[in-house]
Amino acid sequence: MTKISILLILFRFLLAPIILLIAYFLPEKGSTTIVVLMYLGFLSDIFDGIIARKLNVSTQKMRRLDSQVDIVFWISIVVSAWIMFPLVFKNYALPIFLILLLEISCNLISIIRFKKAPGTHAYLAKFWRITLLVAFTALIGFGYSGFTFATALIVGIISYLESILIILILPVWTSDIPSIYHAREIRKNYLKKNE
Question: What's the predicted TM-score (pTM) here?
């Protein structure tokens, strides 16, 4: 059953170049297809996590692979939207740049501290994916970049700040940390055991 989870992750990875090609070659006619593929990728992310947890086949290696593929998938959506709506990205350049900077910082801090890429999978990061789905549905599907897009950017910034704080709080690398509160509890327990 591990194969099903891996196939779902691979499916999401393979969607990325397809989405980019559609955006590049069919920017006006491919918007509906891109939105459909985005939802298929989003659903594959949900189901691979559910299947892995239900069957107890979720490993740290698979969770990190899932996180890295998520980044590739969402970058393909972002780049596709940028190809189709460059003016929107010009208007939101500062918060987009801040999110990229926070993504790089999050990874660097985790690698410096633990010699591993982050795998927090916090609730806020999951919520950010939902806001991204809504924002890019509105933008790619309907050409709307107002409230939904701004909300996704704000949630993204807060989500990355939380992830960085989680990494800084954790005493050892740990995956699947729902929130800062949980990271603090792990730290407290770790310090008690090592007194």
Answer: 0.89
